[in-house]
Amino acid sequence: MVYMTLPDEISQKTTTAPAWSDADLSKNPHGAQDKAERVEAMFTSIARSYDLNNRVHSMWQDQVWRSRAVRLAKLTGTEDIVDVACGTGDLSMAFYKANVRSVIGIDFTQAMLDFAIKKAEASSMEIEYRQGDAMDLDLPDNSADVVSIAFGIRNVQEPSKAFAEFHRILRPAGRLIVLEFSTPKNWFVRNLNSFYTNKVMPITATFISGDKSGAYKYLPKSIETFADVKELGSEIERAGFMEVTQVQQTFGVCTITIATKN
Hints:
By secondary structure, this protein is of the alpha/beta class. It is 41% helix and 19% strand. Strands 3-2-1-4-5-7-6 form a seven-stranded mixed sheet, with helices on both faces. The radius of gyration is 17 Å and the shape is globular.
């Protein structure tokens, strides 16, 4: 059972103009005043092919990373989970399979949620999906044991506001789990990864998706210009979290950050 009305047809809405043009991406996209609206338009455009592109271009590692994130949450089975920027629901579903008490998935883009709902219903998973903003969560203080966000914090207009919200809704001793792409330290892996994400992936992912929003040009640029792993950890600490631990995945291509609320 899924607590949200599902349209008869999955949203077909597409963008008529690029969310991210080459001119937009010649600058730091995180500085765009209308970044949130652009990100929503971008994800609406690529929602239908999002899962396929994730699998193909991570070489199926994205699901491995999510499984590890769930294990690092050190679940006991009694937790209430809030998965922010849940997208099509892969991490929400991974938490549900861990037999927790409840899972709420929240995303800014309805088109992504439409697919998350469909997947949960097909698997008979009782996940509550809601449309919402990471910077202004419609949830009570101290209402979650784990807050997660996978590959989404760099898409938030103001990440510091999101981290403050995560801290607010977590109960004392609650855990924050952040999965995000990162820059490998090894020069060979770093250069290989840069070539792949900047030259290969934008072409192949755009071909698979038929995307015209500029999503797969935005992706590498958004990673390059976002906070590095150390800066991300510091920002989480500034939001009031303690015991920040960072675990690299697949030669540093992505990093799982775990932190605790006092």
